[in-house]
Amino acid sequence: MQGLPARGEPHRGFVLAKNPTSGAAQPAIAAVRRNEQVYASIAGDLLASRLPADITEAELMRRYDVTRAELQRLLDRIAAEGWIARLPGYGWRFAETVSSPEAQTQAKAFRAVIEPAAIAQPGFALPQEVIVRLRERQQRVFEGELDKMTIGEIFQSGCEFHEEIIRGAGNPFFLEALRRVNSIRRLFAYRSFADREGMRRHVREHLRLLDVLETRRYAEAAELMARHLQRPLVAGLS
Fold this sequence. Notes:
mainly alpha; Arc Repressor Mutant, subunit A; two-stranded antiparallel sheet; 62% helix; 10 helices; Four Helix Bundle (Hemerythrin (Met), subunit A); three-stranded antiparallel beta sheet
């Protein structure tokens, strides 16, 4: 969980310094949850046009009842995702593409162009181990995990699926463009409705797409991807 204390260990990377179920870890877990709640509130208020385009840190601290240190961590995260930027000298400005009502439709249209095009690129290839890993993950989601996942987890699962596929084009510009759009789309996930049957349909389409990619029928896969991305948006899963 992001924000929990961790330590580095030889040959193991980073591991949690405290058991997340222990009493000592509970304050860190509570802080992470609080951070996520405030992040979701800012996203929801922005999408509902309850926030001005330009805003000060003092206004944000007062509105969301956070300390300056807590707010700075949030603003650093939001700035890294690309939907806010510091103004010269004073204050912050939300990205126009995020706050406009057309942003979600425009993001969807952009993806419907670049993702099928990536699959249609000469030399596109998806390693078998990647296909196996993606299939196992999507199968687990379809067979029961979906009902236990939060909107944020569902969104992240969809992002990882599509980013792994577009990586097969071997062109970093495709992947970078999709990641940029996904960082903006994250906001929309927080106001998506919980249409679980619609989500299962999207996962079934993911599994079908993997079947076609595995047999290297890339022209068919590009068409499937185009149709998949043209369906109604469901909780960021596409």
